[in-house]
Amino acid sequence: MNKKKMIRLTALVGVATATGVVAVANQAHAATTTTTETTNQTTNASVESTQAVVDAAQSAFDTAQASVDNAQANVTSASNNVTSASATLSSAIANKKVATSENIASATSAVSSQAVVVASASQAVSEQAGVVSAAASVQASAQAEATSASASLSSASANVASATSALSAAEAALTSDQSTAANNLSAAESAASSASAAVSSDQAAVDNAQAAVASAQAIVEVQSSNVINMSAAYITALKNYLANPSSANAATLQEVAKGADYVKELQQKFKSDASLDVVDPSNPAVQEALSVYAVNLINHLRNQYGLTTAFGASAKANVAALDFVKKYYDYENWNIFGTTGSDGQGHNKNGLDAYAVQLNTSIAEDAGSGLTTWVNGKATMATTTLHNLLYAVYSDIATMLFDDGGTNNWSHAQSIFEDGTILGTDGFNNVYLGLAFDKYGYAHYELYNATEGNQLGNNAYSLDVQTAAQTLLTNAQATLASAKASLQRMTTNLMVAKAAVVAAQDQLAALENSSASDSAAVTAARTQLESAKTSYQTALATYQQKEAALEKANDELANVQASLEAAQATLATAKAKLAELEETVANLTNADQLLAAAQAAYEQAVANLTVATGNLEAAQVDLAKAEAQLALAEEAVEQAEARAEIATQVDQQLNGSNANDRQSAGQDATSLKTNGRALTATVATASAANPKRGADQGRLPQTGADNQEASAMALVGLGMLGMATGLYGYKKKKLTK
To answer: I want to staple 317 with a disulfide (CB 3.0 to 4.6 A). Which of 432, 537, 650, 686 is the partner?
Structure first.
């Protein structure tokens, strides 16, 4: 509903109703309760009754709207008809002006002339149709001959294919047995060659495995006989230096240690088997043997030093060392000592820090020359035999002990003989050593603090030299047994392959004189193929000739059909021109009748438009009335709802007051809210004995049917005024509640 139009009326009615209800509130409490309940029932009934009026008004409005829409459509249609009739009338008037006897005679003459043109064109079409029919007959004959020639060509081609197949079969029969025998011989010789190569390879594997067994047996003697011993003077000097690294203690230690000369003396005492084979330093078995040897050397030294805690070795520590060296030395091309001794990069400290974080442990690193020797000031890496690897470990540890002064400040020796700490760093209470060689040949001794978290000490190696060597020996013996078994299999295979070669050679010799009949069959097949090819060439020439004749007939037929289509187009144009001229004669001859008919049609269209326009105006008036009635009915519903709300609020206020509140000499202003707007009513001073109460009550408006009817009449009057002023400003719209 359009509530903007009704704001003033709603406010007036709301105030009057609120005042009446407050006056009633001055009665005794019991009477007030009864009267309010009755008033609530009456106002609720009024809301329902008024809503029914709104529904009826809405229905009337919808009906009126539909009538307006229909009338508008009729007006549009009638207007279009008037436009069309007007155009027809104008054409008839123009036609009437030129409908003179001269013009009619001229038009009639033109029709006669055009009829002659049409007859001539029709004759031309008939003649060309005959030409097309004859050409089509020639084309059909050429098509039949070409089809027959194609069939003959296909047959000749099939004969050639058959003869070719027969020749191939004869040639295959001629060469099949010999070819098969030759192939068998070739395959047998190839198998024999492969078997021979396999025997040689397996024999080499057996030789290598036997050498590995001999190497493993020699390791025990190497490790047990090559130990390092320290003098009592060296131990005392080292302890004094580590307790107080003064210049004097360093000089004493340097003198007792004897330096590089003593290291060279120890190196010369090293006993090994120089025949030990080349091995891979990263092989787990080799790593185990080397790390066990290094730890045994170190623990022997620590025992001499007076320490009871020992270093350990494990596979996991070796794996960690190998992984670290690959990542931070090999992959980063980090040459710890360099190629001349003065260009080395030293320890990769950043790598050590990163790897310590990765393993969540403490790491210290010692490094030695390993497999590298210095010749004429340049580094040269020795062959990675097991002898050289064992010697490298022995030599590195000897150098760390007795030639560790200068810039190293005996730091390597300190790392070997400290307990619970390494180089002043705590957290080395359970040291495990991992050993790996980098790609430059240098040896890296990684010292890890093993914990339950990093598990670097789990599955530790036995430090018994005999056990470690036995592991190598067992592995080497298993490899040797496998190599011998493979050699035996390959030797058997070679014998079988040689026998197959002899059998294939015999088969080929037996087949050399058995191909005479096969050769005759090949000759006959070749003769038949040549005859089939000749027949094919003849059929091909005939086919090409017939195809050329068919193509010519197709072209001729296409040309005459194009001429026929052109003649038919000319005839159609002449007929259209004749019809146009005949229509012109008819229009000129019947000009009066055409004009009268056009005039009558135009007048009827104008009359229809007038009627449709009147119907539209009447429907618009009805729609405006229905709109006004709907607005009044909706406003009445709002008023009824407002009265019901006020009655409910007053009832709640009176029921919640006590006796003293009802007898008070004055009360504060009470703010009531009606239809979204605040209405303030002043409660007058009153008592049960006030003789004017009845009179005041009688003058106040009451709720009920009478007041509802009066309010409705007032709304109807206001609505009629609005309708009278707004009728000619009507615009189509849809009212909603």
So the answer is: 432
pTM for the model stands at 0.42
- In whole angstroms, what is the distance from residue 398 CA to residue 229 CA? 10
Q: What is the pLDDT of residues 127-180, one digit of tens each?
A: 999 999 999 999 999 999 999 989 998 998 998 899 899 888 877 876 776 677
What phi and psi values does residue 360 have, to the nearest 5 degrees? 55, 55
Output the CA–CA distances (angstroms, integers) from residue 395 to 226, 261, 335, 401, in the order listed: 10, 13, 20, 10
Burial 96-119 (b: 16+ CB within 10 A, else e): beebeeeebeebeebbeebeebbe
Retrieve residue 206's tokens. 């057996």
Instruction: Give just the sign of the alpha carbon dihedral 630, 632, 636, 639.
Output: positive
Rounded Cα distance, 105 and 608, in Å = 40
The secondary structure of 265-334 as a DSSP string is HHHHH----TTPPB--TTSHHHHHHHHHHHHHHHHHHHHHHT-----EEBHHHHHHHHHHHIIIIITTT-
Asked whether the beta carbons of 624 and 723 are under 8 A apart, the reply is yes
CA proximity to 367, closest of 441, 279, 275, 424: 441
Exposed / middle / buried, residue 306 (Cβ in 10 Å: 0-12, 13-18, 19+): exposed
What does the longest C-alpha to C-alpha distance in the chain come to? 160
Copy the structure tokens of residue 174.
């001629």
The two structure tokens encoding residue 23: 């006056």
Q: How far is it, in rounded angstroms, from Cα 416 to Cα 434?
A: 14
